């Protein structure tokens, strides 16, 4: 049976994220092995939350400029996304340290910070690796009904956020996917899931 065994981690860079290099041995089922090096982007787990209004079925999305998309030179900035953000240490109960409970707390917090909408019902779907060949990050996926917008939203200015809030019909969001206006993977995934299972939520 093949197996990857990590011998050593070396930190290469530390900023908003952390970049490590793993020195490892790839063992093959035929008994051979090969030394390999792999870069690992260590990122806090995060949440992605599709918000919808229970009264009219409209969905709430966000729009903001993303530096990596600018670095590619693509025309898809600002990026249209579901509400999303990292799970912070403050989201964890210090006694329980439960990752799913922390994800719920982060989902409520991010919805309020980014959109100003109050979550009425929050449904957890999955926790999936965002890109397991590159990063440690898992994304906790949620769908949430909202009932009122009790603050402005727009993100946290002290974190450099400047978020526009978009409200639209689900059919328009699907049109925007076809027109290449919505190109974020987690957003497309949640929109498709919601559309295919709308009777579970409405």
Automatic annotation (TrEMBL):
<comment type="subunit">
    <text>Homodimer.</text>
</comment>
<feature type="domain" description="Nudix hydrolase">
    <location>
        <begin position="42"/>
        <end position="202"/>
    </location>
</feature>
<comment type="similarity">
    <text>Belongs to the Nudix hydrolase family. NudK subfamily.</text>
</comment>
<keyword id="KW-0378">Hydrolase</keyword>
<dbReference type="InterPro" id="IPR000086">
    <property type="entry name" value="NUDIX_hydrolase_dom"/>
</dbReference>
<keyword id="KW-0460">Magnesium</keyword>
<dbReference type="InterPro" id="IPR004385">
    <property type="entry name" value="NDP_pyrophosphatase"/>
</dbReference>
<keyword id="KW-0479">Metal-binding</keyword>
<dbReference type="GO" id="GO:0006753">
    <property type="term" value="P:nucleoside phosphate metabolic process"/>
</dbReference>
<dbReference type="Pfam" id="PF00293">
    <property type="entry name" value="NUDIX"/>
</dbReference>
<dbReference type="GO" id="GO:0046872">
    <property type="term" value="F:metal ion binding"/>
</dbReference>
<dbReference type="InterPro" id="IPR015797">
    <property type="entry name" value="NUDIX_hydrolase-like_dom_sf"/>
</dbReference>
<feature type="binding site">
    <location>
        <position position="110"/>
    </location>
    <ligand>
        <name>Mg(2+)</name>
    </ligand>
</feature>
<dbReference type="GO" id="GO:0005829">
    <property type="term" value="C:cytosol"/>
</dbReference>
<protein>
    <recommendedName>
        <fullName>GDP-mannose pyrophosphatase</fullName>
    </recommendedName>
</protein>
<dbReference type="GO" id="GO:0016818">
    <property type="term" value="F:hydrolase activity, acting on acid anhydrides, in phosphorus-containing anhydrides"/>
</dbReference>
<feature type="binding site">
    <location>
        <position position="84"/>
    </location>
    <ligand>
        <name>Mg(2+)</name>
    </ligand>
</feature>
<feature type="binding site">
    <location>
        <position position="161"/>
    </location>
    <ligand>
        <name>Mg(2+)</name>
    </ligand>
</feature>
<feature type="binding site">
    <location>
        <position position="114"/>
    </location>
    <ligand>
        <name>Mg(2+)</name>
    </ligand>
</feature>
<dbReference type="GO" id="GO:0019693">
    <property type="term" value="P:ribose phosphate metabolic process"/>
</dbReference>
